[in-house]
Amino acid sequence: MLIKWWDLLLIAFALAGCIQLFYYLWFFRRLANYQPEEKEITRENAVSVIVCARDEAENLANNLPGVLVQTYRSTYEVVVVNDNSKDETRYLLEGLHKQFRNLNIVELKQEAKLIPGKKFPLSVGIKTAKYEILLLTDADCVPASEFWLQKMQDAYGENTEIVIGYGAYLKEKGLLNKLIRFDTFHSALQYFSYAIAGMPYMGVGRNLSYKKQVFFRHKGFASHNHVPGGDDDLFVNMAATTENTAIVIDKEAFTLSKPQSTLRNWIRQKYRHFSTGKYYKPIHRYLLGLYSLTHFLFYPLFVLSMIFADWRIALPIFFIRLVIQGFIYYKSMEILDEKNLWPWYWLLDFWMFFYYLIFIPSIWKRPKASWK
Q1: At residue 116, does pLDDT exceed 90?
Q2: Would the CA dihedral through 166, 169, 171, 174 be positive or negative?
Q3: In a domain, 104, yes or no
């Protein structure tokens, strides 16, 4: 007996729905149910905080004091690499240095022509750092609390070499802010869940820590120096393992950034970030690609199945996914302090179909070489 084409359509929708449910129940529930282990011993290691800046005088004036006044009983320094800035960055940093003696300034006056992006200034900052534990953030980020440094470094255990934190965006009015924050949450839901499952694949440079020894053991960014981005996610993808990676999702350990104010600027920023995914390890590319493909196909297959196939089968599959997704999103958004997005999660998830359409070209388009 021949299978009719609309039956194949329904089978495809059911398969996409089942694969989506697998990701939610196998991976994403791990973040929703995550409970950090109680630590018997609290560590306070010497830490080097590293910030790279190019023409960031305004951001540094607003955000750097929050890094410099952390409540921390042990020793820490803040290394700011001024990468060929043409604004008032140099004079601002010199002024701050008079007030904060733990601020170390590195002035770069030459470009690394064959190394696009901020990998060269970041490498210089890492080599300049005095201490083994490095804590990375950006000039446009401010710690969510005075205990950011303490919370991030406390995640280091005996075998820990990499600590992944959450880089959130400020809550503002408007649809664009919701889209940016949902995208940030959705990415974090994946990379935190994979890390908890023992398959860490990325972190964000807005809030990331690792040891100098793991950086030098992997020869820094040498394997992907030709790629403009990836100073955070590609390095973690290369160096992170089940045993050496920890996560921190304490709200006091978040960093906060001001989101892009226009859709065009946000799309340009995302293109640069997406361009690195094709360099991930094969297993990560496969898992992330399968999730994105079924996520992209889910809504058009649902609509077509409702019209041409049996709606009595299509509708329950749709609602089962919606309910499980809503439960996991609610708990995960609460953990990542994005709870006010939850009433809109169903619309924001539907938006992801158009999101994939917008960013599919990033797979083959070459991003801008400059990091600013």
Answers
A1: no
A2: negative
A3: yes
Closest CA to 209 of 244, 175, 184: 244
**Residue 97 counted as domain residue:** yes
Q: Which of 83, 86, 84, 92 is nearest to 58 (CA)?
A: 92
In this structure, are 52 and 193 located in the same domain? yes
- State the pLDDT at residue 371: 54
Using the predicted structure, report yes or no on whether residue 228 has a pLDDT greater than 50: yes
Are 94 and 105 spatial neighbours (Cβ–Cβ below 8 Å)? yes
Give the pLDDT of residue 355.
Answer: 95
Helix axes 175-196, 345-359, angle to 10 degrees: 90
Contact status, residue 22 vs residue 49, Cβ threshold 8 Å: no
Kindly state whether residue 369 falls inside one of the protein's structural domains.
no
Final residue belonging to a domain, choices 256, 279, 302:
279
Same domain, 232 and 359: no
Please determine, for residue 362, whether its predicted confidence score (pLDDT) is greater than 60.
yes
- Structure confidence at residue 1 as a pLDDT band (50, 70, 90): very low
**How many Å apart are CA 56 and CA 87, to the nearest integer?**
8
User: pLDDT tens digit string along 167-193?
Assistant: 999 999 999 999 999 999 999 999 999
| Rounded average pLDDT over 35-46 | 82
At 273 the pLDDT is: 75
274/288 same-domain check:
no
Residue 116, in any domain of the structure: yes
Which residues make Cβ contacts (< 8 Å) with residue 58, sequence separation at least 6?
none
Instruction: Residue 116: give the domain boundaries.
Output: 47-279
| Cα–Cα separations (whole angstroms), residue 277 to 114, 227, 298, 360 | 21, 11, 22, 12
Same-domain check for residues 273 and 338: no
In DSSP terms, 209 is beta-bridged to 135, 163
Q: How far does the chain reach from its first CA to its final CA, in angstroms?
A: 61
Same domain assignment for residues 136 and 223? yes
Instruction: Say how far apart CA 80 and CA 294 lie, in whole Å.
Output: 42
Tell me how many domains the chain contains: 2
pLDDT-above-70 percentage for the chain: 96
Number of other residues whose CB lies within 10 A of the CB of residue 178: 20
